[in-house]
């Protein structure tokens, strides 16, 4: 469902009395500010970990933003390398293009 359809649905709920004026305005503002998609916010926060790393810190960073342990991400990348062959390429691209965590206090 795109943003226009979601706003239309919100308007219908508002007209039916299911949403108050404040709830409608708040939901519409969230949609227009792209806060309705938490995944896009998480992806923009993706950083390679400086503390939880074996190679580049990619799995540590993925683990931090998804809430999944980093060892599971490492296992997934190894499985992709062994079964499909492209896990290593994805890891290297993430290593290159995902920025590293900033050190706090330095």
Query: Into which percentage range does the β-strand content fall?
Result: under 5%
Report the structural category. mainly alpha
State Rg: 20 Å
Tell me the distance between the termini.
45 Å
SSE series: HHHHHH
Q: Please work out how many helical segments DSSP would assign.
A: 6
How many E-type strands?
0
Number of domains: 2
Mean pLDDT metric: 80
Give the CA-based shape.
Answer: elongated
- Assign a percent range to the helix content: 55-70%
The largest pleated sheet is described as: none
Spans with pLDDT under 50 lasting ≥5 residues? none
Can you give a write-up of this model?
By secondary structure, the chain is mainly α. It folds into 2 domains: 34 residues, no CATH class; 55 residues, no CATH class. It contains 6 helices and no strands. Helix 4 crosses helix 5. The protein is elongated, with a radius of gyration of 20 Å. The termini are far apart.
Q: What keyword list fits this structure?
A:
6 helices, single chain, elongated, 63% helix, 106 residues, mainly alpha, 2 domains
